[in-house]
Each structure stands twice: as C-alpha cells, then as structure tokens.
Amino acid sequence: MIQATDKPSDAVRLDVWLWAARFFKTRSLAKAAIQTGKIEAGGLRAKPSRLVRVGDALRIVRGEEILQVTVAMLADQRGLAETIVAAQTAPQRATDDTERPGVRAARAQAAAGR
Predict the structure, then answer these.
(1) How far is residue 104's CA from residue 96's CA, in Å, rounded to a whole number?
(2) CB under 8 Å to 84, separation ≥6 — which residues?
C-alpha cells in the first residue's frame, strides 16, 4: 500500500508516478507498460523502479496513442492529472504509416477474411 511520508521527497518511482498522474488505472498496469517498453524516460527505456524528478520528459505509448509529457509535480497518491503533468503534447497515433508500415493493410486483410 502506498502511503504519504512526512518528509518531502525529490523523486518518486516511475510506476507510482504514472499511476498517481492517472495515465494507468492501477500501478500493476503501469508496471506492465514499463516492462514491455511502452514508457521511455529521457529517450531511454525505463524500469519501474526508476526515480522520476520534476522536469523529466516521458514518452508514453497507450494503445494507439503516443504522449510526450513533462513531470511538473511529484506525487505518490492519485490526484488531478492537470496539476501533476506540466506539458503534454497532443496524442499522436502509433499506427502512423511511417512508424508501422503495413498495419492498415494487415487489418483490412484480416477484416476481409472474417
């Protein structure tokens, strides 16, 4: 169970921060996303125990959207995402033809084969 501490911290675990910022419904889902390479911190693949600090840039892939966020505030309890995230780019589609060629063709072929 996550508990608030009395002394202020200058860093929070990545999986806890993603859950607190409401990018994932549970901490387990955040941890699974990190372990499967869907979260990058500073352009590098991260681990769930990586410490996040204010100002860190994160790249989050959720389903077919890609989010670029900047950490504005540290939190280890769920709160309003708007106060925890400083800047967020508009979600991009991960199925862009330049990133995953052939995805649309494969989906169309699979739909036709039903």
Answers:
(1) 9
(2) 17, 20, 21, 22, 71, 72, 73, 75
Q: Length of the chain in residues, anyone?
A: 114
- What are the structure tokens assigned to 58, written together? 């994160």
Residue 6 has a pLDDT of 42
User: Is residue 24 exposed (0-12), middle (13-18) or buried (19+ Cβ within 10 Å)?
Assistant: buried
- What pLDDT does 44 receive? 92
88 vs 32: CA distance, rounded Å = 22
The answer to whether residues 76 and 53 touch, using CB atoms and an 8 Å cutoff, is: no
State how beta strands 44-45 and 51-52 pair. Answer: unpaired
* Residues 67-92 pLDDT 10s: 898 888 888 887 666 656 655 555 66
Q: Kindly state the helix (H) or strand (E) to which residue 67 belongs, with its residue range.
A: strand 65-71
